[in-house]
Amino acid sequence: MKILVVNAGSSSLKYQLFDMDKNTVIAKGLCEKIGIGGAITHKRPGKADYHEDIELKDHDDAIALVLKLLTDPELGVISSVDEIDAVGHRVAHGGKLKASMIVTDEVLHYLESIVGINPLHGPPAIKGINACKKVMPGKPMVTVFDTSFHSTMPEKSYIYALPYEYYEKYQVRRYGFHGTSHRYVAREAAKFVGKPMEELKIITCHCGNGSSFTAVKNGKVIDTSMGFTPQEGLPMGTRCGSIDPTIVTYLMKQEGLTPDQMDDVLNKKSGLLGVSGVSSDMREVWAAADAGNERAKLALDILIQDAKKIIGSYIAEMGGIDVLLFTAGIGENDRAFRAGVCKDMEYLGIKIDEAYNASCPRGENVELTAPGAKVRTLVIPTDEELMIATDTLNLIK
Ligand code: AMP
What we know:
Elements: E1 2-8, E2 13-19, E3 24-32, E4 39-43, E5 50-53, H1 59-70, E6 86-91, E7 101-102, H2 105-113, H3 122-135, E8 141-145, H4 155-158, H5 164-170, H6 179-193, E9 201-207, E10 211-217, E11 220-224, H7 246-255, H8 259-268, H9 271-276, H10 282-290, H11 294-318, E12 323-327, H12 328-333, H13 335-342, H14 354-357, E13 366-367, E14 376-379, H15 384-396
Parallel strand pairs: 1-6, 6-8, 9-12, 12-14
Antiparallel strand pairs: 1-2, 2-3, 3-4, 4-5, 7-8, 9-10, 10-11, 13-14
Helix pairs in contact: 1-3, 10-11, 11-13
The chain binds adenosine monophosphate (AMP).
């Protein structure tokens, strides 16, 4: 069985072709600058990468080019599009849809109806699905939502203390994001410690350019740090995370900002970039801090402290913790970040082997737990695409 996984953004489209029988990725790549130029990078394991600057007017062009390369006699990995059994689409927001599902007209209409609460990621995801439908008519397609793993949250975790009518009228509630990643790593963690997820209290720390932490108790999400949008919670590369909401109206008045301009400040000019003034990239912020830049150091201190706060609150909410795990770009790679977050947490049962944390391999599941510590602390590389391919396979079967 071969499954194509598509992750469409506003000007980009990532793809991976899985051979599910062999559990391998046979090709993957990235279309960039869609609508503003165009380029594709196409990768096959063990072979040289292929890159081409080529005009991509829209997502239809991007998908057509992906299929052309996948079936190309020289650069391809399959002889015909017929070899693709199904397509799995990453969709950031599923609204009230609580599980991955086969794409039907009804599902598409529903996704179109919630674009208002998902303005950044909704339209490109829909374009990606429609583009695939055009060139692969009749091919089974599945949508996998970042929000669905969080749909088990109790009301008290997802209702904001706003007038209740805004929840009823506009569906203003916590949805949570990165769910496909949290689901994948929580399952991997359970396998790693050799216990069913139903018997574990796990905190999954997805820390990348966007970051969210999730409390998974007995296999179910009971709370997560991202909210109505992927803005709430930790400070991120360029997003501010949780702030006093009144700052928003105050700054809009002071600076005469429109709602869109304010959104821009909160989403694109804040976080690591906003505080450090250096970069949104963790490596560059560390480099500046190491060189003595005080604001870069402050940005890192804020991130590490907020990470501790969320972990502490989830331990309180779950009534304990068995597994703490780090994933995504920062979680998987940034040893100093992990050491900072886990520092002085021994009273909660969390203690890592600092020497091993500083030298452990990257790109594989590793355990950082210090001898005698009660909580198992792990690093689990995330694989959202594999989770999407797995859901797709299960649904088309
Ligand atoms: P992601 O969004 O998951 O791709 O993560 C991107 C973030 O991971 C960026 O802030 C990167 O700086 C950070 N990152 C990637 N590799 C490293 C590394 N070796 N050390 C520190 N941060 C890293």
